[in-house]
Amino acid sequence: MTPDERAKVFKALSDPRRVEIVEHLTKGAQCGAVLAESLGISVALLSHHWEVLVQAGILRKERVGQLRVCTLNCERLREALTMGGAWELTAIAPDPEAKPRKKRAPAKRARATGKAKPTASLD
């Protein structure tokens, strides 16, 4: 997955209503009318959010008779959230038994005062 595709997934999930839709679809495929009713929104509003999620590749929408049924694309979502496997669980949640590293004190640097150092005169 490219960084642009990953960003599209995160952007689609930046809306709380879309996250709620994804949460509902983790329980299985649902048709639009049932999902809209369970969320307490209109089918038109649900359709708008569905399109954003479909464009991001998070959902798959198919027509079954007169119904529009949506399913979650778990693999695409997992790939985006794990950054393609680049993030290990230990990077997100460090081992609780690991000893914390001591912070090193920053190196002292000479301050620049803007004044020239006096030079010795040979008088």
Q: Can you characterise this structure?
A:
With about 120 residues, the protein is an alpha+beta fold. It has a domain at about 5-85: Winged helix-like DNA-binding domain superfamily/Winged helix DNA-binding domain (Arc Repressor Mutant, subunit A). Helix content is about 45%, strand content about 10%. The chain contains 6 helices and 3 strands. A 3-stranded antiparallel beta sheet has the order 1-3-2. A hairpin with a 2-residue loop joins strand 2 and strand 3 (about 65-70). Helix 1 (about 5-10) crosses helix 5 (about 75-80) and helix 3 (about 30-40) crosses helix 4 (about 45-55). The model has no long low-confidence stretch (mean pLDDT about 80).
Q: Provide the succession of SSEs.
A: HHEHHEEHH
Mean pLDDT: 79
The radius of gyration is 27 Å
Terminal Cα span: 75 Å
The CATH homologous superfamily of the domain at 3-83 corresponds to Winged helix-like DNA-binding domain superfamily/Winged helix DNA-binding domain
CATH class (first level) name of the domain at 3-83? Mainly Alpha
Tally of alpha and pi helices: 6
CATH architecture annotation name of the domain at 3-83? Orthogonal Bundle
Approximate strand percentage? 5-15%
* Order of adjacent strands in the largest pleated sheet: 1-3-2
Largest beta-sheet details = 3 strands, antiparallel
